[in-house]
Amino acid sequence: MLGKGRIAALGFQHVLAMYAGAVIVPLLIGGALGFTSAQMTYLVSIDIFMCGIATLLQLTMNRFFGIGLPVVLGCAVQAIAPIILIGEQYGIGAIYGSIIVSGIFVVLIAPFFSMVVRFFPPVVTGSVVTIIGLTLIPVAINNLAGGQSAADFGSLYNLGLGFGTLFVIILVYRFGRGFSKAIAVLIGLVAGSIFAAIYRGISVQPVVDAPMFHMPTPFYFGMPTFNWAAILTMILIALVSMVESTGVYFALSDITKRKLEKSDLTKGYRAEGLAIILGGVFNTFPYTAYSQNVGLVQLSGIKTRKVIYVTAGILIVLGLLPKVGAVTTIIPTPVLGGAMVAMFGMVVAQGIKMLGKVNFASQENLLIIACSVGVGLGVTVVPDLFKVLPDFIQLFTSNGIVAGSITAIVLNIIFNIIPHRKEKEVVEPARIDF
């Protein structure tokens, strides 16, 4: 029987394991879109708050939603690049309009996802996640150098701070044990920020200006707008997240020795869809099951949902205290950049890991990967590639992630789903004429 003190400690451990991953999503998006300090503080705080709400939706079991496993939900890292692109091209309103619609889509498709998932085997999802990670790397490198518009871009100080942060993360991964590895990124961010504070100082004005308490405000950044290209992008990201979450569900079912039925998966998907809708309403981001917390469940051997309820409660309380959120907004840009290199590189590594399940003896699978990654990166590097085509077609070609994803899906259908007869070479005996 676990005591209250141990349950609280284990719950806080789960918060630490997912905190850096959850917080870095609003930091990157808000920084890329030029949010003010006050806006960034709200964005980080409401994100933490909604992580708690999203986790509660999954923990709660009823007839409509909630898978009832010890799962923690946080912001989907794979959504960062698409959201930044949507914000730059169509505005903030389009970000939240597309998130809301994608959430509704997830809720509606939840009972039928088992039929749709066949279109998203590892060769597709692995290619998509790899593309997402690769498109994020330039963002990380720009931040490591100080930010693209910084006057001291690429200075020795910025490079030293960025690579120093990355080096600390690597050291923690190399020599750390157990839980310390789970919070290696957080340790790196703290170490880099402390060095920057000692060497040049850090302004704590955003923390001073932040209120002690606030309430979540629907549509804080304005009313949502709806753009088909943005909506399609977020739906694709939601589908990829559903595939990843499915892996988390089955991993936890194996750890907890609980057999999952189709109805359980449906309720799990619905809970994620509801969380995504609420994310759009309260101006945060899409949510997905966090695999790093699965590792903690395995590591600790504590499988009760009570611990995760505590985790959700802590996240909700922290999200109502803007000064806590404001602390993360004062992290220097090069420090964030150093952490981003590791995190976004891990997204690429996760994509490659997913591709590891693919049968590489099949030339068709190799072609799917080659073409989808090639098209995705090509459109990202040369976004005007298809500008002469009609606007409707550009909905599918203006974004490298969408273009690469659609390429992978279509080629997988052609090569692996549509029945086709392989031609057999018929060797006829040689004719000998006398």
Keywords:
disordered C terminus, 434 residues, two-stranded antiparallel sheet, mainly alpha
From the structure provided, what is the oligomeric state, counting identical versus distinct chains? Answer: single chain
> Which class best fits the helix and strand makeup?
mainly alpha
Number of domains as seen in the coordinates: 1
Report Rg. 23 Å
The main β sheet shows up as: 2 strands, antiparallel
User: How many E strands?
Assistant: 2
Coarse shape? globular
Q: Which residues form runs of ≥5 with pLDDT under 50?
A: 423-434
Protein name: Xanthine permease
Family: Belongs to the nucleobase:cation symporter-2 (NCS2) (TC 2.A.40) family.
GO molecular function, one term: xanthine transmembrane transporter activity
Transmembrane segments: 12-33, 39-57, 64-86, 92-113, 120-141, 156-175, 182-202, 228-252, 307-331, 337-355, 367-386, 392-415
Describe the structure.
This protein has 434 residues and is mainly α. The protein has one domain. Helix content is 70%, strand content 1%. It is built from 19 helices and two strands. Strands 1-2 form a two-stranded antiparallel sheet. α1 packs parallel to α3 and α1 crosses α14. The radius of gyration is 23 Å and the shape is globular. The termini are far apart. The C terminus is likely disordered.
